[in-house]
């Protein structure tokens, strides 16, 4: 899900169809910066890229006229939404339904600027009064003027209920995918896998940051170059882990969503893609350690550890053996 970084910008990963009508979606890191009035996307979190790396694409918020669910336009693309900007439509895929809802609402909110009336407050209030209906009972009607994509738009709003329009938009988006069998297409998971996914890790020697695929099992946490690899770069036995916590080290605290895994021989610094993912990893690893060190590793204790983690576990390629390295 999108999150607010230390510079008060909305950030997160999405898949975007960069070449229009190509049907090919690429993973990108998006930053919605309302202060700069732009939506930009990079190959990865800029914190993990060389200083001065340019963005892959950008879009001025004033060019955006509408952001909406694109289920009907792209029925084969799961959790897809569209940004209408002039003559171009940008199709993007969210991670899940809630991620889609949050991004659509955040983008629509960022592109709407309420325009106050230039007249006195008395005249302002006239727009909020009940307008007469020639036939039938009177209706409570009010209007709001927005600038959307540089064009003034007058829309009817609800007189009562305050954020009724916002709430109805959120509910409609949630209903659109409410019955999707999201997990039906997922392959069966190995029972030993508690959590898996991509994070960014600091190297032991060069101290550079690289994206790695992490796999948490009952007895160890391993990381790979990618989810296609079968042999890990390193396996960290849970029995060697002393603590797992959000990172407080001053010289790298500017990194968002950073946590540390402290072992007997080394402290691993790992950056998740969002605050939710960071806390999910911390809870999952901590839960696995508790389950391992508790009185017997029963099925119930392992189920409890899995519940602490994100249920959307990625596909586990194969059972791997222990290996070591300096990565």
UniProtKB/TrEMBL annotation:
Lineage of producing organism: Eukaryota, Metazoa, Chordata, Craniata, Vertebrata
Name of protein: Pleckstrin homology domain containing, family A (phosphoinositide binding specific) member 1a
Function: Binds specifically to phosphatidylinositol 3,4-diphosphate (PtdIns3,4P2), but not to other phosphoinositides. May recruit other proteins to the plasma membrane.
Pfam families: PH
Any one GO molecular function term: lipid binding
Entries under PANTHER family matching the protein: PLECKSTRIN HOMOLOGY DOMAIN-CONTAINING FAMILY A MEMBER 1 (PTHR14336:SF4), TANDEM PH DOMAIN CONTAINING PROTEIN (PTHR14336)
Keyword Cytoplasm applies: yes
GO cellular component: cytoplasm; nucleus; plasma membrane
Places the protein is found: Cell membrane; Cytoplasm; Nucleus
Native organism: Xiphophorus maculatus
Taxonomic superkingdom: Eukaryota
Domain PH per the UniProt entry, residue ranges: 7-112, 192-290
Main location: membrane
InterPro entries per the UniProt record, alphabetical: PH-like_dom_sf (IPR011993), PH_domain (IPR001849), PI-Interact_SigTrans_Reg (IPR051707)
Bilayer topology term: Peripheral membrane protein
Family matches, as PROSITE patterns: PH_DOMAIN
